[in-house]
Design goal:
Blueprint: H1 17-27, H2 36-49, E1 53-59, E2 63-70, E3 77-78, H3 84-87, E4 94-97, H4 110-113, E5 120-127, E6 133-141, H5 149-184, H6 194-207, E7 213-220, H7 223-230, H8 232-249, E8 255-260, E9 263-269, H9 277-287, E10 301-309, H10 316-329, E11 336-341, H11 344-365, E12 370-378, E13 384-396, E14 399-401, H12 403-413, H13 416-434, E15 443-447, H14 450-453, H15 458-468, E16 476-481, H16 482-486, H17 489-502, E17 505-511, H18 518-521, E18 528-531, H19 533-536, H20 543-558, E19 562-565, H21 571-579, E20 584-585
Parallel strand pairs: 10-11, 13-15, 15-16, 16-17, 17-18, 18-19, 19-20
Antiparallel strand pairs: 1-2, 1-6, 2-3, 4-5, 5-6, 7-9, 7-10, 8-9, 12-13, 12-20, 13-14
Helix pairs in contact: 2-5, 7-8, 10-11, 11-12, 13-15
Length: 612
Amino acid sequence: MGQLKSNSPDVPMRLDETARLNTLTQLSLLDLQPEERFNRLVELARHITQSQAAMFSLIDKDRQWVKAQVGITIPPIPREWSICSHTLNEPSGILVIEDTHQDARFENNPLVKKDPHIRAYLGCQVKAHSSYALGTLCVFDQSPRTFSQTQIHELTMLADIIGSDIWRDQQLIEAHRDLLQKTLYDPLTGLPGQQLFIQKLTTICDKHSEQNYQLLMLNIQRFRIVNRIYGHARGDAILQIFSQILGEVSPENAFISRLRDDRFAILYQLGEDQDDSTLLIRLRTLLEHPLIENEPSLTICASVGVAKITPEVNIPDELINQVSTAMHAAPDISKGISVESFEPSQENHLARSFEIENKLAKAIEDHQFEMLYQPIVRLSDGQMSGFEALIRWPWKENEYISPMEFIPVAENSGLIKSLTRWIIRKTCADFASVYDQLPESVYMSVNISSADLLDPKFTDDVLNVLKQNKLPAQSLKLEVTEHSVINDLKTAINQMKILQQSGIRFAIDDFGTGHASLRYLQLLPAAYLKIDRSFIGGVTELERDAAITRATIALAHSLDKNVIAEGVEKWEQAEFLRAHQAEYAQGWFYAKPMPIEELANYRPPQLPQEHD
């Protein structure tokens, strides 16, 4: 039958044939096995029309593909033989032929002249979601006949049912595809998500652990700050740019994925003469420049953890833990990348942090902390002008844990607000107990965090504690770091101004170690800048530290702010600061931290004998 030649006129092509064929391809209906649901509808079509045969077929570019048929069977045929192809071009969507021998279009058609000898035909277009006819539902007989309007109408209804079924199937397929896409791929960056990453890593560990694969985990430091300052739209743009950068710097064989939020992973194979330095150098170079042209101050740092896949270390969960641990151990810097390779000691650090977090809430509830107070003196005469409250935590017998260790844990765990409230209540009560024994102008300085500045209840809580202890607002100074201020500059400034209006003063703590733009400093209602102890220690020995300290003092004075120098341990350091017009200092040269009751006995230190 496939060798017969047709003498019938060429089948006309629809003007929208390309779009119709594209739709047919997208539906993936061709070359599939027969489906029972279509068989039942085709059988119903034959029954309704009392025909010898019925068929549902699809019209491809060069062929007619039968999806279901009953009665007289027709194999797949060339499109040029297809009577159904003519049905596609009927404006009404229906083609009725009562006798093919009397129709010039079909009298020489191979299907008419030879088996199956079609004489009567009724076909209806089958459409899915679009206006394009994909194929036909047809019935035919080997003898001439007529079809009633009822039969034609009911056959059209069956064709519509088939089209609706196809449309519903397509909707389900697309929904499943979309769900799969969203599950497996990140919709923002288009990168594979965590599930695909785990699958890829598992395959590498199972089959290729000896082939020099390396795993990098990266996250954007302080990304929450970027979102708060610049908005989530800009944050999303940064994630997209960052993902593009990873694609640019990574080898061609690299598998790059976005795991969640601001965390990414790169899994790749190193060549025999390669190491990870090329990728990291390129990444550092790109991130040292602003990511967005109209935001020249917007640079970011990526913390990078590195782990090797080896025959000895080839368990996916273990590798992920290692590379995550290394990433968290990478130091915080302002731009570029901060890299750490996994070391077993890093796990000990995480375990200790976890232990601290587990005990911290109970320590706050049970008042396990101790407060000491270190005088802040006037450099001009060494007299105490204030004192800073310093927290200590008796951790175990004969062991204190440093605030440098447990304060970051409190911030990361969300316990910092509770801890700050405890500190303010405790220190104000302590201050009130010796207030009458101290000079009238002496103030107390207390450190607060970004979470406190962003808490709308913080202002009222502080003022209430002062009132309860009958302390004037002028007796309290709050210290904030550059880092805490830039978390949400607008909210921080508003909170600071409200507290300032009540009489409370502010100092910018650890100045020079954070990442705030200098333009922020003139916006902040802070009367003091505290120069970090890391610079003071070298002012008499290192010109770099001396230059930074001189510049900071000059900057503070240009902004009409006073300077407090931390960590003064030697007379020579105090002399340097006094010579460069710094106003205040604190440190062991003047006094060690002490219990509150000892503050009344503070006396300036005696100067070295040769300088009397």
